[in-house]
Amino acid sequence: PPGTPLLQVRDLNAYYGQSHVLHGVNLHVNPGEVVSLIGRNGAGKTTTLKSIMGVLRSRTGQITFGGQDIARLPSHKVAARGLAWVPEERAILGTLSVKENLELPPARSGGWTTERAYEAFPVLRERGHHPGSKLSGGEQQMLAIVRVLRSGPKLLLLDEPSEGLAPVIVQAIGRIIAELQREGLSVLLVEQNLKFATRLADRHYVFVDGEVVDEVRREDVPARQADLLRYLSV
Ligand code: ATP
Fold first, then answer.
1. Nearest CA to ligand 1 atom 1
2. Chain segment 148-165, per-residue pLDDT in tens
């Protein structure tokens, strides 16, 4: 029904062995929204993405996607429902060429073709026969994003897409995220780069020590700028 969030996470608790790292996280992403998770290193943002994808299985709570429970599904079935995750380490295949990297994930209807990827990122066409390991950090990030778009996801989970990239590349990645949103994709973004996050996201959840301590909407960012900076400062 209208007004139903695309993704809803309720009372998420997550554990690494004996260590309890997420303490009752609640969040949602509406259809077509870009939402950011911000906070210092170790605050639990990556763990939240892994919990949603079912990569981290030692967790409790409710996770629904399009109103359906996905918390018990293995990660490949979560992906098949329309979620795609680009991990922080970008997970491209270093020994395979750019073209092979693009063509390995199965294409699904509505997903990006290799040609579409090359149109969005002409540099990938130029580098088509280079091994993934020889790409720059920015090129690897572009490749990692377009690879997961092969499956035609509805929600893209991006873990620190701007990390370690030159400002001009950060801008290029930002433009693509904005374009994907215009095409109807929803995005859940982990970021420590506040400028990048606030340009792109409609809403922000602030993580401190495994909890969501604040939520800031785009229109409130100017008034809350000092708070946001304080949350991220070490
Ligand atoms: P970062 O930007 O550094 O990834 P984050 O906010 O995403 O930060 P998480 O990576 O989710 O934070 O980490 C949350 C907590 O869980 C931290 O205390 C971290 O040390 C711990 N942690 C993360 N991965 C593991 C693991 N594989 N085993 C044990 N503890 C872990």
1. 41
2. 998 899 999 999 998 888
